[in-house]
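Hi L.,

As promised, Tetratricopeptide (TPR) repeat protein:
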Amino acid sequence: MMPCWPPRRHLAALALSLPAALALAEAPPAGSDEAPPESQQLYQEALQSIAEGRKNDASATLQRVIENEPLHAGAWLDLALIQCALGHTAEAERLFAAVEVRFDPPEDILKLIAEAREKGCAGWQPHSQSSFSVGRGIDQNVNQGAREAELLLPDFLPKHDQYSTLSADHVRDLTPNGSIGFVQYQARRYDQLHQYDSASLYAGVESPWRFGRWTLRANAMLGLITLGGQLYQRLSQVQLRVGPPLPLPGSWQFSVTGGLTHVAYTTLENFDANTVELRSQLSYRGGDSYASLSLAAQRDHALAARPGGDRHGWQVAAQWRRRLYGELIGELGYNRQQWNNERVYAPGFLDQVRRQASHLWRATLSYPLTRTQSLIVEGRAVRNKENISIFQYNDRQLQISWQWQTP
């Protein structure tokens, strides 16, 4: 039986930077059709663990691959690189020597092993990545003014303005097994309508697990949102995403996510609420394309005498991204949100049970200027349709931004 080496693009990812590359590696098909089906499946699971940064899980799975298929050279090499990245120098050297003695490594494998030995196995080092962007845009309906303009006071008519944006985010490994921490900040400042200036700050942690062929990913997040320079909303959220072992092609993934979100308003009374969501998602990733489709059921429980009381709803979202020409990347997105209240919105004033349906269309073009810088143009269109006419509104936005990412 011929040695089973990992695909070259997987090796290239591992060779980028031994301490961090294991978290960046893709999960391509297994290396050899001659390997037993069980070994192929285990190797796929190991590559998925590598892609998710779960080095300890990947190490245990690769050891099982080697037990089932002793000539799986790719598993030997990946395990050696993981042990080196974790700082287990003696074990990594034993595995490197076994690869050299038991197999006939090609030149690029020998070069990779030599580079690993030269750099040394200094132990696990947390990988981090940051991005920063600034942009300019125009918003046709900043205040979500009603469509039936002739029936309303001037303050409730649609108002348009230009704006500037600033955003930054930072992600950092917390453990060798894929747990991460993240911080995100976004701000928008209008040229004239400063009462609608907004900013948001989110911070959270996320951890992946694997139980057999089941994958789990849990996260917790806290957020603050300001409006017009004042604290407007506090948010806390917990989510658990489960990936069941369905017999899907390698390019497809399916997951189910359950979440609980608590929102507290600091400038509004009776609007605090808890929202429970159950979401299913099917995604495809292959070549230069990515697509996803998700469907969610939601229940929003008011914690006080909110107008309309509790509400239930559903959401459907679709996304498609593809390399269009050269380095130019295009993306299309659609989102529909439906909310149905359970009680009359405002007895004696608006004697209707509110039914809301909002549609969001989004189109984006992204072009890399350098390895770390990109130019992004994004257009958005919103159509909010309701049975209560004063809440109906349309909006269009166009934004151009520059983004910088750390290598």
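The domain at 8-119 is CATH 1.25.40 (Serine Threonine Protein Phosphatase 5, Tetratricopeptide repeat).

Thanks again for sending the construct details.

K.
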